[in-house]
Amino acid sequence: MPTIKITGMSCNHCVASVTKTLNEIVGIKNVQVDLKQGQATYDEEKPVSIETIRAAISAIGFGVE
What CATH number has the domain bearing residue 11? Predict the structure, then answer.
């Protein structure tokens, strides 16, 4: 289960936005976003590049470390 660090999240609305965005990426499912740790985990049905994930997260105003 891959894990990515996400910066800029401060509330449950942020968590919901990140969860929705990651779930919309083809090949990603079972997204779990942890606000306190500032990270998201997910399952891959097929390989997804970190660039794809970074672009999707950046588009909604957050960063990926």
Answer: 3.30.70.100
